[in-house]
Amino acid sequence: MKRKLDDDATMDGIMRETPAAIRVVLQHGMLCVGCPIAPFHTVSDAAREHELDEDQLRRDLEVAIDARRVD
Prior knowledge:
By secondary structure, the protein is mainly α.
């Protein structure tokens, strides 16, 4: 299955491009919004740092991205 999120996409970039992703980040208990590391952390990095299931985080972010595309 092809990933919709580029492996090099940063958390900051994802949240800037898709503001609905901010809600996903917060729901996962992450404090990436405004974090000085967010411009450097990929989804993989953030999931690892926060001890989250990366696949679930990616799925949830992709739902937010897809919802934006429909609007």
